[in-house]
Amino acid sequence: MLKKIIMAVLVAVFAYPIVANAEVTDLVCTQTAPTEYKLSYSFTADTHQVSISATTDPAGINGAQTLLTTSDTTVTVKAGQPGQRIYFFLMPDHGKLREVSIRHLPLKGTPNFRDLGGYETTDGHTVKWGLLYRSGVLSNLTPDDFTYLSQLGVRVVCDFRTAQENAVAPEIWIPEAHVDHISLPIGDGSNKDSISTMNKLLATNPTPDQVKAWMTKTYGGFAFTNAPEYAKVFAQLEEDHLPLLYHCTAGKDRTGVFSALLLLTLGVPEKTVLEDYALTNKYLLDAMTPEVTKKMLASNPGIARLSPEVQKVMMAADPDYLRSTLRQIDAKYGTFDNYRRTELHVTDQDVEKLRDRLLDY
Known about the structure:
Immunoglobulin-like; 4-stranded antiparallel beta sheet
């Protein structure tokens, strides 16, 4: 009897061909000139070529122009006009349509302005492009930046900086643009114990190792102390107030932690979340000329007095800092989902709505 069952299973398995999951994966887009882009990607299973089109519409509905059909997995293409934000759509011979664009936006007045689109979730979906943006301070935007940003259609700007920071470097935005500015200060009186501890540390002229240890410990409290402010950004997303931009001064700590909470809520794996956090090292630290550094540190004289080596540790996006936050969430709540429900007030039903709205299916 057992032999008959085994034979029946084998017949059932081999009677029908197994269809491999054909996909275009690992998409990366880099702008190499005002109208030139390098696209790279991988093929899986039965995918052998793609048709590539380009448009200024992140939804891909309007104005798409086919550029080429190719079996190459790295191509350089020309698209759009100088100063335009371009989105590329790749239609494979087998598999689903995929979208990619530049992650780092080329703004002169703020070096760490990024799109969260394109990240893959654990269940095979991707974060939509053109809806979620993270950035550093917006006090030095130029007229060219205003022109570029006007294409994004941002409806809400959430500012995690304190009143003191905003007094030193007032936020600016596109003149006469209709946008809601929401102040959600992190680092003011509600965090006075942390600020006091930091000031005491800075007064001792600490070593880089001492600063890293302090940063790692401090990050652990971000998810708890600042949860009320972060919950208000989620409330904006739940109300479909998109596209949305959130920022702090460097676009690293307060912004980096919120980015992690948002991406994890959407189902992006922790490894990807940590990699997104570390991109600040590429986009911010590489752009830190003496002039930019001076402006960045203007609102915190204590940090400005530190040695360049110690400043670098404080300004680095060390994944260990963010990992400390996530492990403390696990220690206190058992799972991220328990934390999300309790501290961020994002229910499971809210998550489903957010994923429907912010992920490509």
